């Protein structure tokens, strides 16, 4: 697990550092430009949120990033002490903690962060499971929605005339994946590039759902978490634990074996893969 509490503003600062470390390369502007930029840091710029200078805006951005990274520990922090430590460090003052004391506190805090992350995941898993079960129970009663023995739900938007793929086939599809709140987390339509993959390589809900589709069909799939990413979700990704997934899928073709090599070379982002 990532220890977000110790990544304060690292992302923003890394970007700033990457840009600042390019000096001296062929084609760079004279150092005078850098000097001018430094002198202008307190100058007025287009006001944003009531902040009229770069210094104010830059400071607020870093503080905003820090606040987000420390959200998990918001109830465990003394902001006055936090500010005191930051000011001392920026001024080059001697810290109140020795290296050994800092190490011991850091280890304790890391354990606390891990515990809080686990508690958050457990709570999210419980909420997602309850919301998913409630949604599927109601959705299954709607006209045109079919619930299979496994719990997969599907609706035929339009039915093609082609063959249905087998588990051993490679297929070409267009799709859009969303969460129950409607937020899209992946879409081959947005990339303007169909996905090509072995049907046996994707999560069970996809394997079952696409195997029901004749080539040329468009289906809507509702995949319960047990047929998707289960209790783990996609760590660090958009799919939470026990999340129910909603897919609009269009089966374009079953890829013939002699064409799979060429198709694989053109494959883009993949739909839900088996864990």
Automatic annotation (TrEMBL):
<dbReference type="InterPro" id="IPR036944">
    <property type="entry name" value="PPIase_FKBP_N_sf"/>
</dbReference>
<keyword id="KW-0732">Signal</keyword>
<dbReference type="GO" id="GO:0003755">
    <property type="term" value="F:peptidyl-prolyl cis-trans isomerase activity"/>
</dbReference>
<feature type="domain" description="PPIase FKBP-type">
    <location>
        <begin position="168"/>
        <end position="255"/>
    </location>
</feature>
<protein>
    <recommendedName>
        <fullName>Peptidyl-prolyl cis-trans isomerase</fullName>
        <ecNumber>5.2.1.8</ecNumber>
    </recommendedName>
</protein>
<feature type="signal peptide">
    <location>
        <begin position="1"/>
        <end position="23"/>
    </location>
</feature>
<dbReference type="Pfam" id="PF01346">
    <property type="entry name" value="FKBP_N"/>
</dbReference>
<dbReference type="InterPro" id="IPR000774">
    <property type="entry name" value="PPIase_FKBP_N"/>
</dbReference>
<dbReference type="Pfam" id="PF00254">
    <property type="entry name" value="FKBP_C"/>
</dbReference>
<dbReference type="InterPro" id="IPR046357">
    <property type="entry name" value="PPIase_dom_sf"/>
</dbReference>
<keyword id="KW-0697">Rotamase</keyword>
<comment type="similarity">
    <text>Belongs to the FKBP-type PPIase family.</text>
</comment>
<dbReference type="InterPro" id="IPR001179">
    <property type="entry name" value="PPIase_FKBP_dom"/>
</dbReference>
<keyword id="KW-0413">Isomerase</keyword>
């Amino acid at each position: 697990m990532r220890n977000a509490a110790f990544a304060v503003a690292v992302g923003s600062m890394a970007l700033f550092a990457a840009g600042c470390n390019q000096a001296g390369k062929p084609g760079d502007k004279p150092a005078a430009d850098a000097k001018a930029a430094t002198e202008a840091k307190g100058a007025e710029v287009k006001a944003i949120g009531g902040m009229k200078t770069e210094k104010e805006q830059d400071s607020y951005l870093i503080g905003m990033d820090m606040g987000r990274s420390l959200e998990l520990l918001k109830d465990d922090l003394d902001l006055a002490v936090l500010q005191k430590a930051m000011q001392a460090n920026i001024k080059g003052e001697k810290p109140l903690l020795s290296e050994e004391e800092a190490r011991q506190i850091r280890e304790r805090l890391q354990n606390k962060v891990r515990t809080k992350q686990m508690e958050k995941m457990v709570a999210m898993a419980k909420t997602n499971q309850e919301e998913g079960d409630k949604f599927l129970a109601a959705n299954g009663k709607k006209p045109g929605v079919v619930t299979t023995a496994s719990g997969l739900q599907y609706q035929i938007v339009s039915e093609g005339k082609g063959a249905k793929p087998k588990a051993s086939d490679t297929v070409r599809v267009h799709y859009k994946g969303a969460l129950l709140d409607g937020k899209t987390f992946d879409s081959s339509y947005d990339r303007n590039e169909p996905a090509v993959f072995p049907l046996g390589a994707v999560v069970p809900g996809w394997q079952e759902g696409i195997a029901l589709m004749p080539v040329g069909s468009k289906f809507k799939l509702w995949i319960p978490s047990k047929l998707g990413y289960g209790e783990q979700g996609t760590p660090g990704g958009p799919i939470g634990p026990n999340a129910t997934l909603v897919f609009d899928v269009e089966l374009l073709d079953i890829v013939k074996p002699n064409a799979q090599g060429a198709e694989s070379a053109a494959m883009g982002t993949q739909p839900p893969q088996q864990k």
